[in-house]
Amino acid sequence: MGAGKKRKQRFLDDNPLCFFCGEQSTTVDHVPSRECFRDRVWPEGYEFPACAACNNGAGSLEQVVALYLLMGNHDGAQQTAQFEKLIAGVWNNAPQFLPKKEISANAKKRNRPIATAAILL
Description:
Layout: H1 3-14, E1 27-30, E2 47-50, H2 52-57, H3 59-72, H4 81-93, H5 105-110, H6 112-120
């Protein structure tokens, strides 16, 4: 067993219950998700014991949050592979959270900020 697996098993042995539901922990969850940080590098100590259901339950919403965080912190440089992967992931898993490009004229008049955001994308 490698060092990473030993560290994970030690963590789960020390924290046997899921932080979210109280069931048996089988995975290590990162809250907020590693996707929320540029190049998936996050601060130490953001790990929680979790069962597989809790760890995987919010995956598509974590992608949406990460995409919008990276969009807000975008420095104008060329899109990174992480950013492109998040766009594809949200497109596949939760397209209802992406801005709508085709908005009727009446909708544009009712809600200018949304129309402006859609044009930017």
